[in-house]
Design brief:
The protein has 237 residues and is of the alpha+beta class. It has 7 helices and 9 strands; from the N terminus they run βββααβααβββαβαβα.
């Protein structure tokens, strides 16, 4: 099976395998599910990107810059880094009643790591406590936001919620500038959902709504069998 990320041109038939996995392909495919995502043009100047931000977003990012936050970029993560993220994320997922990061997802991240396509970022406070994580896939041109998570214990008091909001916005903004400095051209926010809060958060970073296509396409009976086995494995975690 081949997995294609951010495909920009159709694949020739002779290049197709029994099954193909597609993530945020720009090529229309009726067999894949269509999603909306937000693309930020990283070829714009930092000032242009800043001006594209929603006014309230700019204000919060500016406020966050005055905190003693420290940002760590792990551009060559180890399996230990992935496991540490999984533990953090699953606490967050339990608190927010969302899907967990299971063994299938860890295996996917491990394969991306082996291809130098995985980047993990953290935002820490002055006590070196991790407040936020973001995990990315990058092909050297497009960077895709795969996961994000915030410290689940800091969501009980209003002032702590505000701190997390500042931290998560600041981490995302600094990540955008980091990938821009690496000369990547597109920052993909990872998709829009029906959740209005998440949708609003992503739109406040000033990108353009773009249709993309994701999913798996079987090109043979063997491919259909592989998809069936994959579905069973995901259910078992």
């Amino acid at each position: 099976m081949n997995t294609y990320y951010f495909l920009k041109e159709p694949i020739l038939n002779e290049q197709l395998m029994d099954i193909g996995g597609f993530t945020h392909s720009l090529v229309h495919n009726k067999n894949l599910q269509q999603f909306e995502t937000v693309h930020i043009d990283l070829t714009k100047s930092e000032e242009e990107l800043l001006q594209k931000l929603h006014r309230t977003n700019r204000k919060q990012i500016n406020k966050a810059s005055r905190h003693n936050f420290h940002i760590l970029v792990i551009d060559k993560p180890t399996i230990a880094d992935i496991r540490a993220f999984q533990k953090f994320y699953n606490h967050f997922a339990k608190f927010t009643n969302t899907y967990s990061c299971n063994s299938f997802h860890v295996n996917t991240m491990s394969k991306l790591k082996d291809k130098n396509a995985l980047v993990i970022t953290q935002l820490l406070n002055e006590e070196n406590e991790i407040l936020c994580y973001r995990v990315y896939i990058s092909d050297g041109d497009t960077v895709f936001s795969l996961y994000s998570a915030s410290h689940f214990r800091l969501k009980e008091k209003k002032e702590e919620k505000r701190l997390l909001s500042l931290a998560s916005r600041y981490l995302l903004w600094r990540n955008i500038l980091y990938f821009k400095d690496l000369n990547l051209t597109i920052y993909d926010m990872g998709g829009l959902t029906a959740n209005e809060n998440i949708r609003s958060f992503k739109m406040e970073f000033g990108g353009e709504i773009t249709p993309v296509y994701s999913g798996y396409e079987a090109n043979s009976l063997v491919g259909k069998l592989v998809l069936w086995v994959r579905t069973i494995k995901m259910r078992k975690g």
